[in-house]
Design goal:
This protein is an alpha+beta fold. The protein has one domain (about 1-50). The protein has one helix and four strands, in the order ββββα. The chain has one helix spanning about 40-50; strands at about 1-5, 15-20, 20-25, 30-35. Strands 1-2-3-4 form a four-stranded antiparallel beta sheet, with no helix packed on it. It is globular, with a radius of gyration of 10 Å. It starts with a strand and ends with a helix.
Length: about 55
């Protein structure tokens, strides 16, 4: 699950959960992990969602 809030304070970020467990908080402006860990697949998925303007 990818959670992001429009109109929230900077930096733009997304929180990612898998099966209800926190995985990572990702800085969308810098393209890097803020907290947690992100594997290559997750980084690719986030990149695709950003490119599609879904995040």
């Amino acid at each position: 699950m990818f959670l992001a809030w429009k109109g929230d304070h900077a930096p733009r970020r997304v929180h990612v959960y898998k099966e209800g467990e926190f995985v990572v908080k990702w800085d969308l402006e810098r393209g890097e992990v803020m907290r947690g860990e992100a594997g290559r697949r997750l980084v690719r998925l986030i990149g695709e969602l950003v490119a599609e303007r879904r995040l």
